[in-house]
Amino acid sequence: MASSTISKQDCLTNCQECQTTLATMLTGNCLQQGGAHVEQNHVKLMLDCMAACAACIDFMSRNSDFHKSYCQACAEICKACGDSCEEVGGMDDCVKCCRKCEESCTAMAS
Amino acid sequence: MASSTISKQDCLTNCQECQTTLATMLTGNCLQQGGAHVEQNHVKLMLDCMAACAACIDFMSRNSDFHKSYCQACAEICKACGDSCEEVGGMDDCVKCCRKCEESCTAMAS
Amino acid sequence: MASSTISKQDCLTNCQECQTTLATMLTGNCLQQGGAHVEQNHVKLMLDCMAACAACIDFMSRNSDFHKSYCQACAEICKACGDSCEEVGGMDDCVKCCRKCEESCTAMAS
Amino acid sequence: MASSTISKQDCLTNCQECQTTLATMLTGNCLQQGGAHVEQNHVKLMLDCMAACAACIDFMSRNSDFHKSYCQACAEICKACGDSCEEVGGMDDCVKCCRKCEESCTAMAS
């Protein structure tokens, strides 16, 4: 999907999916499995990403003139979180939604 | 739809739709139209409802043992906000998503 | 301090202190120490408590008619989180701010 | 106060004060007075600023590596919101806390 075809609604949906998928995986999977799943940097990135998506949803849905800053930050954090989930392993759903959210937030930020 | 058939995912989706629909309508429609649309109690209820949905999404997606309190509060606020939108008029999308969110939050809270 | 003498501003301040203290301890201390500090139920309670305080601050500062529900939920979560921090040990600052926040939220909810 | 002497705790405190002051003024004062106080752009900026402060508090208190992006965005929004409050008039507390928050967020972002 070319960035130019991503609508604000697509981006909202991707942020929503990313926020809830990460929240569910962090609390239901990572905290249960332990080990690399609860490594300081990984959990911090999961929390960053959940918060970045929530802020992005908030600013986009309020038609804010400042939404691009929040989409830009969200894209960067999704990249870092997706990389961390890939490294930890067994978190394919998280990797997938982070990549999708990163792509749409990058498009919205430009 | 019977309450008993409402899943947590349905409730999440309804809260997400309600949060973003209200945010878009408040900033893009109510604040532009003025009059009854910016009456103190109405705007306060719109803000309450957006925040209640966001908290509900957060607690449900984190598998929190305390999500029922937030679903219960969200149901009450959706009721009040839907009533206010109905009274102000010309806000059918808001009324509809508030009613749907109220129903699913009530189901989740029980 | 008797509950009857707790003002809304006191409660706001206690919620703010509790939110930021827990966030700092969770990411800077618990996630670094591991062990009981990253046990599923403990981290979930820390996240619940941070979110409960944030919601409480939001509803109280917006003069919401619904703030009591959020204060009540916050009081319950602070109780559970304070107990968990006490059990885990070495988290005296968290225990202290949870107890203080619980007390003021209980007062605000009544 | 020189920017170089502003601590993270100062910035947190200023963000907290700005968030709650704006929330209280928006719902208790602007929505009651009407007129320029409920003009679309002004209310949108008040909501942006409340959300920017909340995100900034969240990322700073969680020791996030990405807090600078949120401090930078918050500084820009505080500038715009402070200007709007100045223009509307009768909002000296808001102007003051926006300026203070802008200064400390600028320092944190650098």
UniProtKB/TrEMBL annotation, chains A, B, C, D:
Domain of life: Bacteria
A matching Pfam family: Csp
InterPro entries: Csp_YhjQ, YHJQ-like
Stated name of the protein: Four-helix bundle copper-binding protein
Biological source species: Roseiconus nitratireducens
